[in-house]
Amino acid sequence: MPVNEATASPATTPVLCVGDIQWNDAQSLLARHGLRLNHVAAGEKIPGSYWGEPEAGIIACDVYVRDDTPVHSMLHESCHLIVLPPERRAQVHTDATDSVPEEDATCYLQIVLAGQLPGVGSPRLMADMDSWGYTYRLGSTQAWFEQDADDARRWLIERELLPAA
User: Fold this and answer.
1) Cα dihedral sign for 114, 115, 117, 119?
2) 165: number of CA atoms within 13 Å, CB side?
3) pLDDT at 63
4) Out of 23, 112, 113, 164, which residue is the most buried by the measure of CB atoms under 10 Å away?
């Protein structure tokens, strides 16, 4: 399970930010999951941001980001919404869940979706997650994803959010 992001310090190595990727690619990816990506101007407060700027914010089906929002944050908060049933998604404002299984599924799914986002990819996202301060008992995001995330994968498959293959 990842560390509480509030205790993580920002990376000393730059992580990939929303301004580094094509907006239309990110917007299209989220739209496939029923989400709207909203751009917040530089220096403006990000609505629905649990961790504060520059972290992404969520309100119902809307994801809010600035150009300096890390891509891993945009995907993580988006995946919090994706894993929720529609009736719960509609009620979300800032804080999506306190469920460990949903948090693990969110982390797993953000890595999968990074592989579908041009200019990002799963390996880069996992490196950024490590750099930002996510911690897992096997020592890295990649080790967790490849060796210790069967429960998260199974959770997503059971809810038809991943193929059973």
Assistant:
1) positive
2) 2
3) 98
4) 113
Among candidate residues 103, 112, 113, the one with its CA nearest the CA of residue 32: 113
Distance in angstroms (rounded) separating the CA atoms of residues 34 and 108? 19
3 state DSSP class of 57 = strand
Please answer whether residues 92 and 81 qualify as being in contact, where contact means their C-beta atoms are separated by less than 8 angstroms. yes
pLDDT along the chain (165 residues), means of 10: 39 83 98 97 96 95 98 97 92 89 96 97 96 88 96 96 87
Cβ neighbour number for residue 2 with a 10 Å cutoff: 18
> How many angstroms separate the CA atoms of 16 and 55, rounded?
13
**Residue 100 one-letter amino acid:** V
How many other CB atoms sit within 10 Å of the CB of residue 88?
A: 13
Looking at residue 137, its pLDDT comes to 85
Task: Please name which of 85, 96, 97, 95 lies closest in space to residue 158, comparing C-alpha atoms.
Answer: 85
- State the greatest distance between any 2 C-alpha atoms of the chain, in Å, as a whole number: 44
Half-sphere exposure of 138 (CA within 13 A, CB side): 11
Please tell me what DSSP assigns to residue 17.
B
Residue 120 CB neighbour total at 10 angstroms: 23
Angle at 72 between CA 165 and CA 37, to 5 degrees: 90
